[in-house]
Amino acid sequence: MTRSAAIAADRAALGDTFALESGAMTYLFVFSASGVKAFYDIAESDASKGIADMRMLSRKVPADLFFDRRTIPHDMFTRELAEPYVANVGDALDVEVALLGDAGEIDVFDLTRRLGHRFGLASRGGPGAAAGDVFTALVDALDRLDASAAFVTPEAAAEIAANDHAEERAALDEIAAAYRSIVAAHDTGPVPGMFATIVDRWADDDERIRGIAHDVALVHLGSMSNLFAAAGWSIVHLAQRPELAARVAGGDRGFAERCALESTRLAQRSIMLRIEARDPDRMAMVRPLQILGPVRPGGTAALLRGAPDADLVLVTHVGLESLQRLAKAPARIPFDEPVRIYLTRIRRSEIPDGDRFIPWLDAQWAACDRRLRDRASDFYPVVGFEHSGIERHS
């Protein structure tokens, strides 16, 4: 019996909420809408998700990797540092596509995992980290540190603990060894960027090389896990729609980016789950959205409270999806396809307050989504991916 089947059998026998004791740990399983709602309503100070995640991750990753870190994943995604990231994605794609050859069969998620490693290390791994034998060695070590195993194969935790994370510690040592040459190359000709930021935080430290290597490892592991899967599902969804895949294969970059965004939107189950758990009535309003994600009413409400006499303007567009920042728009002129920007002004006197505000805002957002859907179809095919079975493609 698989783990999923065993849990399903326990749920059938015990109901939607039950506890499982395993060694010194107790796991609480919550499946019902009311149970999930209650879970999300617990304050972080009373039941910390961050601490829970760290306890789970430390079953696979040595806990000392989390201590004395001077760079965390969040630090690496400021606008200024992330600008070169897009170029690195293109370079990594060129390398991986060349390695694929003209025909054959691949495991999509293995491909996107390796692709993620390559452009992640190119962006923040330092000189030479994304090529040759150094890249191969780093990928091997990082894969042995893959923290997702803490969630996918929790039964292995006892053996890992009994061995004092020996394999994982060896992987960290291998990463540190690789960074002797990487840091030396950087010191010879420093280049501003993500890696330089990490290096600067370890200046004049006796543990400089190991500290830099461990910072890179933590940032890489912490920021790449979801990216592998997201990229893989984008390819799967395209494989299920040959007519869309043909347009992407024909070189329509803008359309490819919209397909990727649609795959990401489709995968945002956690956001939708929280809405469904907390407010099932609201779910009926946001479920039909096809282009826009659910609006977050708290920010809009705060803006309106801060400007009690101001009208509200909703801004939507078709054709700027591929831009990270609006300031980059002039560099893309002339655009490959038409750009349409729509502004909807709502007078303050028409905006309800209290309990009527969120349903009203959702209705306005749904209307924007319908308008975008209708108007986008004049210029672009609407992607409209849906969940369905996965077939094998060569």
**Annotation field: number of helices:** 17
Largest sheet: 2 strands, antiparallel
The topology string of helices and strands comes to: HEEHHHHHHHHHHHHHHHEEH
Mean pLDDT: 80
CATH superfamily of the largest domain: Cytochrome P450
Q: Please tell me the CATH architecture of the largest domain by its name.
A: Orthogonal Bundle
| Rg over CA atoms | 24 Å
CATH class of the largest domain: Mainly Alpha
Tell how many strands the DSSP assignment holds.
Answer: 4
Verbal overview:
Helices cover 57% and strands 7% of the residues. The longest helix is centred in the middle third of the chain and has 32 residues, at 208-239. Helix 2 (33-41) packs across helix 14 (269-278) and helix 5 packs antiparallel against helix 11. The chain has three domains: 3-57, no CATH class; 69-239, Cytochrome P450 (Cytochrome p450, Orthogonal Bundle); 282-376, no CATH class. It is mainly α. It has helices at 3-14, 33-41, 49-57, 79-100, 108-124, 132-144, 149-152, 157-162, 166-188, 194-200, 208-239, 242-249, 253-266, 269-278, 280-286, 297-306, 357-376; strands at 17-22, 25-30, 312-318, 340-346.
